[in-house]
TrEMBL record:
Pfam families: Anticodon_1, tRNA-synt_1g. The keyword Ligase applies. InterPro entries: aa-tRNA-synth_I_CS, M/V/L/I-tRNA-synth_anticd-bd, Met-tRNA_synth, Met-tRNA_synth_2, Methionyl/Leucyl_tRNA_Synth, MetRS_core, Rossmann-like_a/b/a_fold, tRNAsynth_Ia_anticodon-bd. Its EC number is 6.1.1.10. This is methionine--tRNA ligase. PROSITE patterns: AA_TRNA_LIGASE_I (PS00178). Residues 392-476 form the Methionyl/Valyl/Leucyl/Isoleucyl-tRNA synthetase anticodon-binding domain. It comes from Ignisphaera aggregans. The lineage of its organism: Archaea, Thermoproteota, Thermoprotei, Desulfurococcales, Desulfurococcaceae.
Length: 509
């Protein structure tokens, strides 16, 4: 994949978005998966010297939320107010440095939705008609024949395995069909959807089935919890149209033209593969109708699964974020594990055995042990003061791995970037063993080189574990992390003043 960020900071802008989550319950590990990855990407580009803007939030309208509030005997607004706070608390715990938390019930967003719908109406892209079809409230989506599954003559949702509702109603349609060729062209040639096979899947579906016009309104008699259609107050806007537009509200659309110009062109949108159709066929079309280009990248990841099934509240098989944080005693370990297991192509089965071995192998034994050994040695043999004297031969090895890690970060391949960083740490542990600096009278060169290597690895891990790595760098006497790639040069530090020998990760019981 081509790199996303551009080099010079004046020109380098990046807009990272997560899907906005249905706040019908607290977030689980599946939601954390997307959000943490997005945060890591945003933090990486910021560390590399770009202006990064991270948007996340909650998708608060629609039948799903309305029913959930009713079930609890609550007013929908009170319910989403309460739940949005819960999401914010979880993201705080996980160190998500979002620039804006958007809620679709915000006045600003509702105005944007009305503005866009009026614009599409004025442009003649909306017409009235009748809709009949099978609806899944959990997905907030109609399923056509071939898409739904039939079990014992009952029509079911292919994702949630729930019985679908048959709905027949007057509605308004958006003329997606007009944009069939455009969408196909960007899916096939645009180099936007990553990994590419997701793009091809959607393109093939459109080639076979065509691109049907989309029902974008719901009669208030069925769903009242939504934004009123500006030209017919008997209807509310279909929740998915409302939700997709959050990405524009997030940039101050339509007023803040500078921000839109700077950020939209270098946007990286993260989604799970479950919402691929909405973010391609529908989203690309709406953007085109508004004379906006598609995002720069749509980064699609696969599912976290339990016994092969997508983890989710509807299936009742969720791993709680709290449980995982408690197990490792540090929320940043959750972030690290997510970065390590991230897979865009294949589903990843949740496994405590694997998580424990990542913790023990990568953090405790590899990173943590190296930090402890190197700082102890520096204090014992050099009184903490290591002066610039790089072992050029070993530095070459580190430099190569570092470059790979940077390249993979720039290509949004977080898990591979981490793998190369871990290789730096492995190589450095082996280097100490080989060099045995405790046996020489002049250990400065080896120790300086090892500290440089730890510094580089810590910088590379900084987007993943911001607090832990800052503390480690601090113990080396470095209390400021800069923005830009200059600091990634080996030999950049003139003198280390190691203050303490930390044990950054504790054994788990
Ligand atoms: N509200 C919509 C999105 C609107 S975006 C304009 C929605 N919300 S959701 O809460 O159901 O889920 C959103 C996202 O959570 C998924 O696309 C995915 O990124 C993430 N995940 C939820 N469960 C997951 C797994 N089990 N595995 C991986 N990602 C998961 O859809």
């Amino acid at each position: 994949m081509d790199s996303v960020g551009q080099r010079s900071p004046e020109k380098c802008f990046i807009y990272v978005t997560t899907p906005i989550y249905y706040p019908n319950d607290k977030p689980h590990l599946g939601h954390a998966y997307t959000t943490v990855l997005a945060d890591i990407i945003s933090r990486w580009f910021s560390l590399a010297g770009c202006n990064s803007y991270l948007l996340t939030g909650t998708d608060e309208h629609g039948a799903k939320l309305q029913r959930e509030a009713e079930k609890r005997g609550m007013d929908p607004k009170d319910f989403v107010d309460q739940m949005a706070e819960v999401f914010k608390e979880y993201w705080k715990m996980l160190g998500i440095g979002y620039n804006r938390f958007i809620r679709t019930t915000e006045q600003e967003h509702e105005e944007v939705v009305r503005y866009v719908i009026s614009k599409l109406w004025d442009k003649g892209y909306i017409y009235s008609g009748k809709y009949r079809g099978w609806y899944c409230t959990a997905c907030e989506k109609f399923y056509s024949e071939g898409e739904y599954v039939v079990e014992n003559d009952v029509v079911m949702c292919p994702i949630h395995r729930r019985v679908l509702e048959f709905i027949e109603e007057d509605t308004y349609f958006l003329k997606l069909s007009l944009f069939k060729d455009y969408v196909l062209r960007i899916l096939r040639e645009g180099n936007i959807v990553y990994p590419k096979h997701y793009s091809d899947e959607v393109a093939t579906k459109i080639e076979i089935e065509g691109l049907q016009d989309l029902s974008i309104a719901r009669p208030k008699t069925r769903v009242s919890w939504g934004i009123e259609l500006p030209f017919d107050n008997r209807y509310v806007v279909y929740v998915w149209i409302d939700a997709l537009l959050n990405y524009l509200t997030g940039l101050g659309y339509p007023r803040n033209t500078d921000r839109i110009e700077q950020y939209w062109r270098s946007s990286v949108q993260l989604i799970g593969k479950d919402i691929l159709w909405f973010h391609t066929a529908i989203w690309f079309t709406i953007l085109a109708m508004l004379d906006l280009p598609p995002p720069k990248k749509l980064l699609v990841h696969s599912y976290l699964t339990i016994k092969g099934q997508k983890m989710g509240k509807s299936l009742g098989n969720v791993v709680s974020i709290d449980e995982m944080v408690k197990r490792y005693g540090n929320p940043e370990v959750v972030r690290f594990i997510i970065a390590r297991i991230a897979n865009y192509d294949k589903d990843v089965e949740v496994s405590w055995d694997i998580y424990d071995s990542i913790y023990m192998g990568d953090l405790l034994n590899n990173y943590g042990n190296l930090v402890r050994r190197a700082t102890t040695l520096a204090i014992k043999t050099l009184n903490g003061n290591a002066i610039r004297d790089l072992d050029e031969e070993f530095a070459k090895t580190v430099d190569k791995l570092k470059q790979q890690s940077i390249d993979y970060y720039n290509s949004l391949e977080v898990a591979t970037a981490v793998k190369y960083t871990l290789d730096i740490l492995h190589e450095t542990n082996a280097y100490i063993n080989r060099k045995e600096p405790w046996r020489t009278i002049k250990p400065n060169q080896t120790i300086y080189t090892v500290l440089e290597s730890i510094r580089i690895a810590s910088l590379l891990l900084h987007p993943i574990m911001p607090v832990t790595t800052s503390n480690i760098l601090n113990s080396l006497g470095l209390d400021r992390i800069e923005h830009g790639l200059e600091q990634f040069k080996l030999g950049y530090i003139e003198r280390y003043n190691v203050k303490e020998a930390p044990i950054p990760f504790k054994k788990i019981r």
